[in-house]
Amino acid sequence: VNILRGKTNSANHTERSPLLSTTYMTLHNPGFVGGDEPWDNSSLDLERRYRLGSEVTSLSLSRSSSSEKSDPLENLNINFRLTSSMSMLNVFCFQLFFSMYPDRDNPWRMLAVSPTDSFSMNLTDFRDNALLKLQLGGPFTRGAVDLASQEYLLVQVEQSEQPGQRRRRTQQVIHNWTIPVHGERSDQMLVTKTFEIDPIVITIQAFLRDDEVVPLSMTHQSLYVTVETQVAIAGVILAGVYVLIIFEIVHRTLAALLGSFAALAALAIIGDRPSLVTVVEWIDYETLALLFGMMVLVAIFSDTGFFDYCAVKARRGGYSVTSHRVNAFYLSISFHILCLLLSPIVLNLDPRHVLIAEVIFTNIGGAATAVGDPPNVIIVSNQDLHKEGIDFASFTGYMFLGIILVLLTSFPFLRMLYWNKKLYNKESIEIVELKHEILVWKQTAQRINPASREETAVKCLLMQKVLNLENLLRKMMKTFQREISQEDKNWEQNIQELQKEHRITDKVLLVKCVSVLGVVIFMFFLNSFVPSIHLELGWIAILGSLWLLVLADIQDFEIILHRVEWATLLFFAGLFVLMEALAQLQLIDYIGEQTALLIKAVPEDQRLAIAIILVMWVSALASSLIDNIPFTATMIPVLINLSQDADVNLPIKPLIYALAMGACLGGNGTLIGASANVVCAGIAEQHGYGFSFMEFFRLGFPMMIMTCMIAMCYLLATHIGLGWNM
After folding, report:
1. What is the CB-side half-sphere exposure of residue 278 using CA atoms within 13 A?
2. Any idea where the Citrate transporter-like domain is (predicted)?
């Protein structure tokens, strides 16, 4: 009423006053904007005061915590930030190299072959080049070729080796490449193979049951460097991306974008620069649509107060079980739900440990079924593996039993990692909440683009609010004394206060959200079992978010869009481009080929056990460093060919199960090892509870080693001890 009447009482206002009160005081305080002083000058002055106050606050907080042990990684982080000029130089070099080479513009040749008509082409422009990259499009299938019963194409690349010290005459060398042909001629597929030769003739022959004609499309191009050089370049780029993320030199989204651009520049240098259309096609839009739809659903769901209500209930359960102590083991179970369905923890606990534990068990649980993780979906969708008896039921039954054993050992191991380690914040709940409030106001002010007079005024008011709160924080830090033990004794009173404060705020909206979310989850499961439903997971999530937007009658759509983790979506887009570019640089193929060579070098009586161990750990380590989706897709044909090699004589099931275990459990090794890790880190960062790469690594990597050890023992016991190979 006083505000509407134009009356104020400055004595009643404090630093913790609401923004409305602070706004009114600022507008009516002649000391804030003097007389006819324009908003632009006052905003600049206020911004200087805001930055100065932030620096003073940071300095005072660092002095207040000087008695504590400093993290050496923080000092390294400061040192690495001093190299921003070097990073800009590297970006300039990448841009220069990328702009010097044109897009590959090799025309596609349309041709047709049959058992009676073959195709042959002479090459005269491939001299002094390191590689020939040959691409064929046609009705092909994946997997190895059975020459006795299957239709296939034979591609022969002929080269001539010039005479040398050991040879007096020119010798003709032929390299064969067999491609299985689809029996119904329906599926169109693009296959690629690289030859380390200087070719002179390319010949394509068809071996079919009848005289049908197979239409094909073909293109070829020369590359300037060898496979080993490409793999070395890809390894350097991947290591550089991890350095940027581990030491937090830049944000992980920017690190992924820089890495993808560096990989594209490397492709341009070797003569294989993709076009912009090709780069855009590398992005997995189904995954992005799934994440976007679920983020919109959760953004609306959070308005009901359901998440805060569940957080308070979970803490009451945690105290009851542990006799007034916070138990990481119980909390990890309580919060073992989807990452997207978590809200910021409003308790005086450090939620980062709980979030990391939740993500770890999400990845472990996803390995239990055929639809729980993308690598499993790729495996059960492979038709060649269907012929070997690896279908939905058999795969789920075997993996579920193994993951149950992994879970039974994971909970005690997690408890041991948190032994005698409380999850309390080191400061009082008032200071924690005040710091979080300052962070939220800062982020809000930074998101405002002062394009108009009114927006400039709002940003100035927000910065003034931050200055007031930082002054209050300095006063509280001077008089702060840790009283955690006293808080632990009064936990029942704290819980009662939290229950009064955090309740379901909109029951009608909650019913709508639960109904739509239930239908979406039901459609997720139905899509896996009913092939007549032609809706992918991304479409289901998008349609669910549209239905909820209509039912909830959202008027201010921009508020919902502000809650979407755009940085996370952009990170995944950059990661997809980076992984595909590294695959184009032969990195993933090289890992698979070297794994197969190591398995072939083992004695026959120990070959199966060594193959299981090798495939398991190579998959786990590779999936913790690179995306497990392209790695799994690349390793499946490698393992199929390995099992069908008469000289190796290995069953396919143990190798595939080892690949699935390693690819799924290996995602816990690093922060970017799995999609759930990145999504959870993005949402936590948005709410002011972000965790770094090393914070996740300290817990995730030991858990990955332990779970992979248990999974390896399960694989060896079932396939070596019990002989479950058929």
Report:
1. 13
2. 242-662
Give the integer Cα–Cα distance in Å for 544 and 555.
18
Strand partners, 44: none
Q: What is the DSSP letter of 102?
A: P
Q: What is the DSSP letter of 424?
A: B
**Residue 26's CB: how many other CB atoms inside 10 A?**
17
Which H or E run includes 559? helix 557-562
Rounded Cα gap, residues 557 and 547, in angstroms = 14
Cβ contact 172:158 at 8 Å: yes
| pTM (2 d.p.) | 0.74
Angle, in degrees to the nearest 10, between helices 607-625 and 693-716: 160
- For the chain, helix (H) and strand (E) counts, in that order, are 29, 8
Note the pLDDT tens digit of each residue in 354-405.
Answer: 788 888 988 898 899 887 788 888 888 787 788 888 888 889 899 999 999 9
Q: 245-302: per-residue pLDDT in tens? A: 888 888 889 999 999 999 999 999 988 899 999 999 999 898 888 889 888 988 888 8
- Beta bridge partners, 223, equal 131
Q: Which two tokens stand for residue 615?
A: 């495939």
Residues 378 and 633: beta-carbon distance below 8 Å: yes
Q: Write out the DSSP string of 199-258.
A: EEEEEEEEE-SSS--EEEEEEEEEESS-HHHHHHHHHHHHHHHHHHHHTTSS-HHHHHHH
Confidence of residue 545 (pLDDT cuts 50, 70, 90): very high
Q: How is residue 505 annotated by DSSP?
A: S
Amino acid in the structure at residue 466 = V
Q: Regarding beta strands 171-180 and 119-122, do their DSSP bridges make them parallel or antiparallel, or are they unpaired?
A: unpaired
Q: Which value, in Å, is the radius of gyration of the alpha carbons in the chain?
A: 30
Those residues whose C-beta lies under 8 Å from the C-beta of residue 561, and which sit 6 or more positions away, are: none
Nearest residue to 264 (alpha-carbon basis) of 254, 253, 274: 274
Q: Of 410, 285, 394, give the one whose Cα is nearest residue 660.
A: 394
- Kindly give, in sequence order, each residue whose CB lies less than 8 Å from that of residue 374, ignoring residues fewer than 6 positions away: 628, 629, 632, 675
Q: Which string of b and e fits 285-296 if b means at least 16 CB within 10 Å? A: eebbbbbbbbbb
Distance CA 241, CA 255 (A): 6
- Alpha-carbon distances, residue 80 vs 74, 87, 697 (angstroms): 10, 10, 20
DSSP 335: T
Other C-beta atoms closer than 10 Å to the C-beta of 392 total 16
Q: Taking each helix axis from N to C terminus, what angle separates 392-417 and 652-665, rounded to the nearest 10 degrees?
A: 40
Query: β-strands 152-161, 131-138: how paired?
Result: unpaired
Kindly give, in sequence order, each residue whose CB lies less than 8 Å from that of residue 293, ignoring residues fewer than 6 positions away: 538, 540, 541, 542, 543, 544, 545
CA separation for the pair 61, 54 (Å, rounded): 10
Q: Which amino acid is at 280?
A: V
CB atoms within 10 A of CB 149: 7
Encode pLDDT of 137-172 as tens digits: 999 887 666 677 788 999 998 876 666 555 566 667
Supply the DSSP string of 345-411, one letter for each residue.
--SSB-HHHHHHHHHHHHHHHHTTSTTSSHHHHHHHT-HHHHHTT--HHHHHHHHHHHHHHHHHHHH
